[in-house]
């Protein structure tokens, strides 16, 4: 993460006719304080996440290097299908993006369908502590309904 502060907040935005949306500056300042590159990631249907590029790439590279080492050591010989699945998901999961003027983010083709929001539609921008998430409102509400009862227990676990 570009900052030691959690990225928090919930903001309603509208996708324009070119699938652009404005990300609040208080969020982008925390996500990429040095105007670092950003990575847009397919998280789950109805949700994209936006990460600090160097942070995301470092974690991804570390994981991929471990998989390469396991392949070289012959530890994944019986798991070729899993390695292929990982490769397919890596091929489509992320894209480098930049913010245009006024913090506008263009949602690329392929990511638009995954998000499931048409041009002119509403989205929610949610701070997720270490990244920013872009949600289809119905998906966000369903996620909140499922996860909110776990809040107190999760806070106690992480802070204890």
TrEMBL record:
The keyword Protein transport does not apply. Residues 10-55, 94-139 form the SpoVT-AbrB domain. Pfam families: MraZ. It is found in: Cytoplasm, Nucleoid. GO terms for cellular component: cytoplasm; nucleoid. One of its GO terms (biological process) is negative regulation of DNA-templated transcription initiation. Keywords: Cytoplasm, DNA-binding, Repeat, Transcription, Transcription regulation. This is Transcriptional regulator MraZ. Its main location: cytoplasm. Forms oligomers. Belongs to the MraZ family. One of its GO terms (molecular function) is DNA-binding transcription factor activity. HAMAP family: MraZ. The keyword Repeat applies.
């Amino acid at each position: 993460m570009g900052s030691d502060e959690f990225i928090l907040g919930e903001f309603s935005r509208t996708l324009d006719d070119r699938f652009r949306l404005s990300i609040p500056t208080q969020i982008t300042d925390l996500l990429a304080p040095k105007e670092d590159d950003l990575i847009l990631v397919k998280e789950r249907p109805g949700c994209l996440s936006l990460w600090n590029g160097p942070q995301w790439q470092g974690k991804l590279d570390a994981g991929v290097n471990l998989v390469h080492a396991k392949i070289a050591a012959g530890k994944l010989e019986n798991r070729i299908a899993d390695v292929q699945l990982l490769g397919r998901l890596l091929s489509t999961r992320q894209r480098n993006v930049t913010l245009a003027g006024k913090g506008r983010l263009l949602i690329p083709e392929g990511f638009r369908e995954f998000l499931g929001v048409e041009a002119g539609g509403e989205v929610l921008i949610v701070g997720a502590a270490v990244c920013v998430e872009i949600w289809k409102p119905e998906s966000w509400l369903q996620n909140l309904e499922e996860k909110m009862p776990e809040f107190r227990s999760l806070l106690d676990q992480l802070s204890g």
